[in-house]
Write a structure and sequence with these properties.
This protein is mainly alpha-helical. The chain is built from 31 helices and six strands. The chain has a domain of about 120 residues: Rossmann fold (3-Layer(aba) Sandwich), CATH 3.40.50.
Length: about 800
């Protein structure tokens, strides 16, 4: 309880210090960035310590984070003093929204901290990997942290999320084995606060009253964090035997069958909840999956408990969307003049955008695309230029902001970061399209909620575009320029139908000797609905841009266009990474889409509820029918979180200690190493594969070992990365009977500690212990022995 409170108070202190910065940075949002204050405070403090420790000015230590927090506070106080009257007036005007946003934050923090207390173990899946990066960040003397599973080498992963939470661990005094679980709770809480504030601002900018905006903001929180996809529909059907073997065979979601049993209201098969994140696949006649993908969503991620970059990035992706919304809603015209008049805001925006790729590499491209779309739209609506003219004017200032972001984090982007993308063939062609039933399982509820906003926006502009195209084809006189469609047919064809499809077609014809024209036709028809949706939303956004103010509805439509284009793109193409398929692309892009749609959902809910008062006839009946359908689907979307969370949570005594499950001897040894290991110390423990308990000691302490989880290391560094003789050397260290050979190998890697526990004894049955007594001192912890080499030989850090 005390750790959870210390963690919360530290985050609150950074948020309060940073709120004046948020107030200054987000003048166009109704809450003036209150929902973004905590992510901004965490980012600012983490960045200051990161860059200053990288430069050798300060160490990565608690005192440095106190100093960084003090700097943020001083900047905030200076802004607060300058805008004191506006701040006071804002607090009086918006105290209800601020209080409710804070209540949402605290409720989400408390709920997820409580849940983590019933499922705290840092074990299984990739939790040990996440714990590794968290400990590496907290234990590092300076940036970049050393990779605990590859001694002598820096972390090659995007680690800034771990760095920020490691810094909060240092600042709050909460040990990392507790901070791991509290980081998940805080991430969920910051995401709730951020989406609440952003949705509140967008609905308000769309004309919504305070009450309507607050209700719709709450809807955005629900859609982001509290629902699942529609896997619950199929689980209930299976549980109550609705549908036979033929239906579930056609459905083809692995693990689901017609004769499932349960305990009256939820399935009981082992890890049944896992299926919710593995819906999309195509199986051959032998039942072998051909198109395995991952479709995580935020609730699943927080329940699973892996502290992955795509999870930690949620509030920061929302922060990036907030930057885009603020730029769009500000009355100032966009261009180089904006940069001259707002240099500090431009730098702050660059720091936020640059941080996104450092937290989760995929996010920087997506948020840059959203920023590009909204600034082009902004220029288009304020200047009498074509779409291409707007793009030419809008993009250079944005590229400067993005360049600032890359330069601010240059030691990472151009130094330690190693991309999985295959340089010879960075783009691959997806072999199979997503089956409609699987697509609707993931996105069905969202389609129903967003459809009224989409249709009301696109019907008029698309009708006008079609009429213009018909008249042009017939040789009729073009309509007046004020009524001409926003985008030429050539551009729309290239954007929505041409470029991704022709790239896919070229790849498909190149890599498949038996490719036929019918293959191309089939794939074209499979993606046509999404392509048409992209075209329609693009037409609507640019047509409405010159007919209505820059409001929240128009921003939501621009974001929706990007979302639809992403969904369309991943049906054809994928980033060719370590896995060589579209699994990771679907995983990361779908996650980003879920986050962005939660923002659009607030505006869509407001539009639907506000328009229902004026709809009559078939429109009203259709709206009511859609409302009933949405309610039914929402019930199934809520079913999964309740059933899955109650299944996965442990009934053990609640605790936030992520290492409570570790045996007494091993836990005592880990604690001893955490207390006694010094800077640059190296340990050796048995090498094992991914998703196992191997590497636990280095993962739990941050003390680097010679090598572990080599498959994951190759994912981070490239499949051709050469580890040299590390794995065989570790085996020789344990099994050799010659003390001098062991001494030489220990010196090669500057090893100070040799760890011997159950995993070492099982992995190396020929383990020879007696030689260590000749070259090191023994420290015993029950069944665990640590040998400390008093004077390890100096060595040159290995290059591999």
């Amino acid at each position: 309880m005390s750790d959870a409170l210390a963690w919360l108070l530290s985050a609150e202190a950074l948020g309060l210090a940073a709120f004046p910065v948020a107030y200054w940075l987000f003048p166009a949002l109704r809450d003036r960035g209150w929902g973004f204050a905590k992510p901004i405070g965490l980012l600012a403090a983490g960045y200051l310590v990161w860059v200053l420790s990288y430069a050798g000015i300060v160490p990565n230590a608690r005192g440095s984070y106190v100093l960084a927090g003090a700097i943020v506070l001083c900047v905030g106080l200076a802004i607060a003093f300058r805008h004191r009257r506006g701040l006071v007036a804002h607090a009086r005007r918006e105290w209800r929204a601020i209080a409710l946003g804070e209540a949402v934050f605290l409720l989400m923090y408390g709920a997820w901290a409580l849940y983590r207390a019933y499922d705290p173990a840092i074990a299984g899946t990739e939790k040990p990997m996440d714990f590794l990066f968290l400990n590496a960040s907290a234990a590092a003397h300076a940036a970049p942290p050393t990779d605990p599973w590859l001694a002598g080498q820096p972390v090659a992963y995007y680690y800034f999320g771990y760095w920020m939470f490691g810094g909060l661990s240092l600042l709050s005094g909460v040990p990392t084995y507790v901070a791991f679980n509290l980081s998940l709770a805080l991430t969920a809480a910051m995401a709730a606060g951020a989406v609440f504030g952003l949705s509140y601002g967008l609905v308000s900018a769309s004309g919504g009253s305070r009450r309507a905006a607050l209700w719709c903001a709450g809807g955005s929180v629900v859609m982001l964090l509290l629902i699942a996809n529609l896997i619950g529909l199929w689980e209930v059907a299976s549980l109550y035997h609705v549908g036979g073997d033929g239906f579930f065979g056609w459905l083809s979601i692995e693990g689901l069958r017609a004769d499932q049993t349960g305990d009256s209201w939820r399935p009981t098969r082992y890890w049944w909840w896992w299926v919710g994140s593995r819906v999309i696949n195509t199986f051959d006649s032998a039942g072998v999956g051909q198109d395995f993908t991952i479709e995580e969503f935020p609730f699943f991620s927080f329940m699973l408990g892996d502290l992955h970059p795509h999870v930690m990035s949620i509030p920061f992706v929302l922060l990036g969307l907030g930057v885009a919304a603020n730029l769009f809603l500000m009355p100032d015209r966009w261009g180089f003049a904006w940069l001259r008049h707002n240099p500090a805001r431009a730098v702050a925006a660059g720091l936020i955008v640059g941080a996104l790729g450092f937290i989760n590499a995929w996010d920087i491209a997506t948020i840059a695309a959203v920023l590009g779309a909204v600034v082009v739209l902004k220029v288009y609506r304020t200047k009498p230029v074509s779409f291409f003219g707007a793009a030419v004017r809008a993009m250079p200032p944005l590229l400067i902001i993005c360049g600032v972001g890359l330069l601010a984090y240059a030691p990472f982007y151009f130094g330690t970061f190693s991309s999985q993308v295959q340089p010879a063939a960075p783009i691959g062609g997806a072999r199979f399209p997503t089956r409609p039933v699987h697509f609707l399982t993931v996105w069905g509820l969202w389609l129903v909620v967003l459809m009224p906003l989409f249709l009301s926006a696109v019907v008029g502009p698309v009708r006008e575009y079609a009429a213009w195209a018909w008249r042009s084809a017939a040789g009729a006189v073009s309509p007046p320029s004020a009524h001409r469609p926003a985008i030429s047919p050539l551009w729309l064809t290239g954007l929505a139908l041409g470029v991704p499809f022709f790239i896919w077609a070229g790849i498909h014809l190149e890599v498949n000797d038996g490719a036929t024209v019918s293959d191309l036709a089939y794939r074209f028809l499979s993606v046509l609905p999404l392509a048409v949706a992209v075209a329609a939303s693009s037409i609507a956004a640019f047509s409405l841009a010159r007919r209505r103010p820059a409001d929240g509805r128009l921003f939501a439509l621009a974001v929706l266009s990007i979302v639809l284009y992403l969904l369309y793109g991943v049906e054809l193409l994928f980033i060719h990474d370590f896995f060589g398929n579209r699994m990771n692309t679907i995983f990361k892009v779908y996650y980003q889409v879920w986050i962005m749609l939660s923002v659009v959902a607030g505006v869509a809910i407001y539009h639907w509820t506000s328009q229902s008062d004026v709809w009559r006839g078939w429109r009203l009946r259709l709206s009511r029918g859609a409302g009933v359908l949405a309610a039914v689907l929402l019930a199934f979307a809520f079913y999964y979180p309740f059933a899955a969370a109650s299944t996965k949570a442990s009934s053990a005594e609640p605790s936030l200690d992520g290492l409570a499950h570790v045996g007494d001897s091993e836990r005592e040894a880990i604690e001893w190493l955490r207390d006694h290991a010094r800077r640059n110390d190296v340990l050796v423990e048995a090498v094992g594969g991914g998703y196992t308990e191997f590497g636990r000691v280095s993962s739990s302490t941050g003390v680097p070992t010679v090598l572990n989880w080599p498959g994951h290391e190759r994912q981070w560094r490239g499949k051709d990365y050469d580890f040299g003789d590390r794995e065989s050397d570790v085996e020789r260290i344990y099994v050799t009977t010659e003390a001098e050979e062991a001494r030489r190998l220990l010196g090669k890697y500057h090893v100070r500690y040799v760890y011997i526990g159950e995993r070492e004894r099982s992995k190396y049955p020929s383990l020879a212990v007696s030689k260590f007594d000749q070259i090191a001192s023994r420290i015993e912890f029950g069944s665990v022995v640590i040998y400390e080499v008093q004077e390890p030989a100096a060595f040159d850090r290995p290059s591999s």
